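Sequence design from tokenized structure. All designs in this work follow the same two-part layout: the structure record, then the generated sequence. An example of the structure record is given first.
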């Protein structure tokens, strides 16, 4: 690491450390609004139930304002790591912020979209665990139309748009269904503890997307916020309101702003090297203490120029292939090596360490189930192995679950607690070779204690959101292949393996 980068790291670390040690003063105290109520700190998430990871990320960005800029790189749905890796290959450094896409625009079949979105989620989890920041964009096709670019960039009249934000209409129902679909993947990130800079319906002050330049855009924003936060309990989202720079193609910011109660971060998309001072000044004024970022850019900004007149941008994100189309190799290297630009390595050092543990250090499990393994098919006698398992999703084929356990005629009992996200009827699905039994809250809901292969059994039970229920699963293997998978679904939740985050040890 060169001298300048060492100096940058030390400077940023000392500034952030000094801020954390400062006593509260009048300037830092909670302001009182005009109605006499105490308003929230500018860097407190607008969702009062936000996860500690989301709150920590927002606090970091707020404290970085004026001191440096987080580097960012966007990738597409079809290839979620392509240009992020290209940036590393060119400059020797990864960006901190990895931007992903959840919108499908190539008219792919539904199964392909599901696989691509799952690849995005898997990459995002790896990225966060490796010490980076995750951002998600959603180029949503007009609900009810095919998933192609023309249906994202669709001209939609105000009258037709109104139908999508009017509860009870077929168009509104298709909007809700589309939000529910993407909520499934955001929920996987929540369950993995990944905070997300969530930037839906961006560039709304231009007329090139179906949601653009609508008199009642904020109604669409509020519907999405309510559905994802209050219905789907996505407490890992930081809501990024992201207009286009108000140039000759886009309106001023203010008419489309949902207000401070529904926005965590404000960002502007700036292309053609058009970093006009008024774009920055007006957004900073509207933010009123919230962090601001450059949501998209084709050209890398000049960190020196920004430090002189636009120092409060806290992050930027280069858009996909424009990294190399709009910037030469020397510009990319210079930007990433500038003393004000934070790479992922810099971010990890200022944060102390990446989220993931070192390779040689066994992970400490906080969630999961306790499994007792028996060397017989009847759960008899003392267990020969007791261990913590993350979830019930095993395929041992013709082998053994662990050393000391036979490959045939063994059994397992898992116990712990399970906590649902929604208050509604859940269906549990057990697929096994061979026998399986499942109890939830002391009730036997699946009882299939027999030789079987390739058969799924289901059981239903009403559950209350946030309530921990006792869970017990018993399984036995006769001979041959051995596997077991436990999934769940509900009206608000697609079928998925019960995630580790929903399970706790006894």
């Amino acid at each position: 690491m060169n001298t300048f980068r060492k100096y940058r790291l030390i400077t940023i670390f000392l500034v952030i450390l000094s801020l954390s040690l400062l006593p509260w003063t009048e300037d830092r105290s909670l302001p009182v609004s005009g109605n006499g109520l105490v308003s929230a700190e500018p860097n407190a998430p607008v969702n009062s139930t936000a996860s500690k990871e989301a709150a920590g990320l927002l606090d970091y960005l707020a404290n970085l304002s004026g001191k440096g800029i987080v580097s960012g790189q966007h990738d597409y749905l079809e290839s979620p790591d392509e240009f992020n890796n290209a940036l590393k290959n060119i400059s020797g450094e990864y960006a901190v912020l990895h931007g992903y896409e959840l919108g499908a625009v190539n008219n792919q079949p539904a199964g392909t979209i599901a696989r691509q979105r799952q690849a995005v989620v898997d990459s995002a989890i790896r990225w966060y665990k490796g010490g980076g920041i995750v951002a998600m964009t959603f180029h949503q096709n007009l609900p009810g139309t095919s998933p192609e670019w023309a249906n994202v960039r669709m001209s939609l009249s105000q009258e037709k748009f109104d139908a999508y934000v009017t509860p009870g209409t077929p168009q509104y129902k298709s909007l809700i269904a589309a939000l529910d679909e993407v909520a499934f993947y955001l929920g996987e990130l929540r369950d993995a503890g990944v905070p997300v800079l969530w930037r839906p319906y961006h560039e709304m002050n231009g007329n090139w997307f179906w949601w653009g330049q609508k008199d009642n855009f904020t109604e669409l924003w509020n519907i999405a916020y309510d559905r994802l936060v209050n219905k789907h309990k996505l407490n890992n989202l930081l809501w990024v309101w992201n207009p286009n720079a108000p140039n000759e193609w886009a309106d001023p910011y203010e008419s489309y702003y949902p207000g401070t109660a529904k926005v965590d971060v404000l960002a502007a998309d700036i292309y053609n090297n058009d970093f006009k001072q008024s774009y920055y000044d007006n957004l900073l004024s509207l933010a009123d203490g919230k962090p601001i970022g450059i949501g998209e850019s084709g050209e890398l900004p000049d960190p020196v120029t920004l430090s002189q007149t636009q120092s409060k941008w806290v992050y930027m994100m280069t858009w996909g292939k424009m990294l190399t189309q709009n910037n030469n190799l020397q510009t990319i290297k210079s930007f990433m090596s500038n003393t004000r630009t934070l790479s992922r390595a810099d971010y990890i050092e200022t944060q102390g360490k990446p989220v993931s543990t070192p390779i040689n250090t066994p992970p400490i499990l906080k969630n999961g189930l306790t499994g007792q393994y028996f060397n017989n098919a009847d759960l008899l006698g003392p267990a020969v192995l007791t261990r913590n398992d993350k979830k019930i999703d095993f395929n041992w084929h013709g082998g053994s679950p662990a050393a000391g356990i036979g490959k045939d005629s063994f059994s397992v009992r898992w116990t712990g607690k399970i906590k649902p996200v929604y208050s509604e009827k859940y269906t549990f699905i057990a697929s096994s070779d061979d026998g399986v039994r499942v109890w939830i809250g002391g009730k036997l809901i699946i009882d299939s204690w027999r030789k079987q292969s390739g058969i799924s059994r289901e059981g239903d039970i009403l559950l209350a959101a946030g309530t921990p229920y006792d869970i017990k699963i018993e399984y036995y293997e006769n001979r041959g292949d051995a596997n077991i998978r436990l999934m769940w679904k509900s009206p608000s939740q697609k079928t998925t393996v019960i995630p580790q985050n929903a399970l706790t040890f006894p």
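The first helix runs from residue 3 to 21. We note this feature because it recurs in several other targets discussed in the main text.
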